């Protein structure tokens, strides 16, 4: 877990997305103007958190990880959460399961997934079993510069300096064995098991039941750059599910993609601080 700011300042907890880490929020933290104690959680199997011992990762484990962190950093008072993508999905469920633990929540494109049907279960389990048989060796990168170039190719809003900083903080040097013997390179700080198909279907009704129990105000921050998620989240089906939040504001950040905390950290920091207001009455 990364920590920024004075230890006695009011806490704020940042929750990263899939195949990411707490380091991803550095540019956002740099843009904050209010004095806060900011905690960036590395979910299990990401960043410098230990990898899991199983074949895949389960959402209930993320809920338990978040509760353990809140018990440590703010056992007696509700906290402000900022959560991106997968982290937003976890945070919204947790805020309904433990509404007394969350004061306010900023959700950065944590949309959830399309609903599933029970008849999809046999195929989903089969896909998971097949994936366990055909797992590829973990990739080694030749350098941090190679990942930086890949990041910029996927997001041209990233300048060279930021891309290289992210690459250096998303990787570590490693020696891994393959058919050729020990190989040296750079390893992503993310367990490749996260990329395996999860055998459990996305149970939308259970998720929405959690959302309906949220008492904290929620700010949903969206980007404008079209991608695969926008095709889903711009549909009437998705917009209808947002009605399950008792108190929801939405805002769109111009000139941003899904990694909007990389693209527009200054604008995003101002939105977050305005929404949170004073940390405590």
Average of the residue pLDDT scores: 91
Number of helices: 11
Strand line-up across the major sheet = 1-3-2-4-5-8-9
CATH topology of the domain at 2-115 and 203-276: Rossmann fold
* Helix percentage range: 25-40%
What would your notes on this structure say?
The chain is α/β, with parallel strands linked by helices and 281 residues long. The protein has a domain at 2-115 and 203-276: Rossmann fold, CATH 3.40.50. Helix content is 37%, strand content 19%. It is built from eleven helices and nine strands. The strands form two sheets. Strands 1-3-2-4-5-8-9 form a seven-stranded mixed sheet, sandwiched between helices. A two-stranded antiparallel sheet has the order 6-7. Helix 5 packs across helix 6 (160-169). The radius of gyration is 19 Å and the shape is globular.
Give a brief description.
This protein has 281 residues and is of the alpha/beta class. It is built from 11 helices and 9 strands. The strands form 2 sheets. The protein has a 7-stranded mixed beta sheet with strand order 1-3-2-4-5-8-9, with helices on both faces. A two-stranded antiparallel sheet has the order 6-7.
